[in-house]
Amino acid sequence: MQNEIRQDKIIGSRRFSNYFWAFFLLVGGLGFLLAGISSYFKVNLLPFTNTTELVFIPQGLVMMFYGALSLGISIYTLLTIILDIGSGYNEYNRIENLVKVVRKGFPGKNREILLTYSLSNVRAIGIKITEGLNPTRSIYLCLKDERNIPLTPVQEPTAISNLEEEATDLAKFLDLRLENL
Fold first, then answer.
1. Secondary structure of residue 59 in the 3-state scheme
2. C-beta atoms surrounding 69 within 10 Å
3. What is the pLDDT of residue 70?
4. What does the pLDDT look like over 124-172, one tens digit per residue?
5. Which residue ranges form the domains of the chain, and what is each CATH number?
6. Order of strands across the sheet with 177-180?
7. CB 152 within 8 A of CB 138
């Protein structure tokens, strides 16, 4: 029974890089916002520098704008971390002849995203590797109606050998062919 069902966990937004950027943007945003407020009230709110000498218009105003923008992005990133957006699992069930792709979305009607496909509708397991400025290395579920469903999460590119090994194992498990996209 255990050999007939395979479940791969997907890490969502709770990755080190998201924690790093949320913290970095929060601290930077607070610094910029406090610098702008300091220039307006002529009171030094930052202990490590004197920002009271900044002219409020335009420097202080721009600093406040960038600070507020940075704080907004950091709060959004923190919310995606708290809600664990994008996490879930892929389940491959040879007993029921199904592939289930389950992910967490944003709160609301579609908080839990469930995609179910019959193995009879699956044509192959596909690998897509693109190099360059924004490299991607992904495994796809290729359906007979020409749709490609991504199975790997958005992340830093993994080693090509690891990706190929994972795709090969999955193709062998599902008794499907492997193709390059």
1. helix
2. 14
3. 98
4. 999 998 888 888 889 999 999 999 999 988 776 788 899 999 999 999 9
5. 16-83 (no CATH), 86-180 (2.30.29)
6. 148-150, 136-143, 122-130, 177-180
7. yes
